[in-house]
């Protein structure tokens, strides 16, 4: 398996992947025109032809037979071209000494506070390949790319996690709040956001604080919670240093997690090494390995061994990276010490 930049020939595979994502992944809509535009823009981004506010680094996971089975991306900066909305979960205090009443009321404040941060987004892996190292490689490859090219990204990285919805795509939070203002199904609002039609959010979203006590019990319960299928991704991000700081999605109330770029484990601990080819040995551990290129980026995960400034890998791994003995790589242990293997 390798992670590489997307190219135009991947479009049919991307459309198939988008159709299988269901609701909740707004940045990967099953819309051929939109995906065609996004792939073309990603190719420009990797060539260095897009500013940070427009940059879209779109990667695919490809198996050794050339089949595209996953996708992930990094947005250079959010909110610099169009508003980026979240709810900030805060607190409103009401008190009356005369009546001996004191209340702390959880409150949702519409905010643009995350504007300018880079974003990990569009992570999706085909169900048949959710095994072995595939999921971690696809997700964490982006962090190794950031480590190699930190000048392309912001000082903080965020990731919006999919919120709770049922098998039919029904979101309790949307049913209790969003539906009253947007008068449409959650899936339709989700789709419109994904294809870039975000003006309706600014036009219809309430600007005043919202007391969560007016929401249904089911809606209150899912604020800041992730969809069960997203739990592994959230755990992985937490192991890399990401944390929830009180911002949630305005549609499904899924949490946004964040970390200073330099403090992400895969960024902080990665190192430049010289590639050696051989037998890693029985004591080899899984490494995430990047060929240090941008347009011709190749990232893979494989057993490897550190030895005096070199990284020893087997011939197949070197072939996947399109490298030879003596080339430079950037590498980091695939998993954090506290992350389950």
UniProtKB/TrEMBL annotation:
Domain of life: Bacteria
Gene3D superfamilies: 2.40.40.20, 3.40.630.30
A biological process term (GO) from this entry: L-arginine catabolic process
Cross-referenced InterPro entries: Acyl_CoA_acyltransferase (IPR016181), Arg_succinylTrfase_AstA/AruG (IPR007041), Arginine_N-succinylTrfase (IPR017650)
UniProt-listed Enzyme Commission number(s): 2.3.1.109
GO MF annotations in UniProt: arginine N-succinyltransferase activity
Protein name: Arginine N-succinyltransferase
Gene behind this protein: aruG
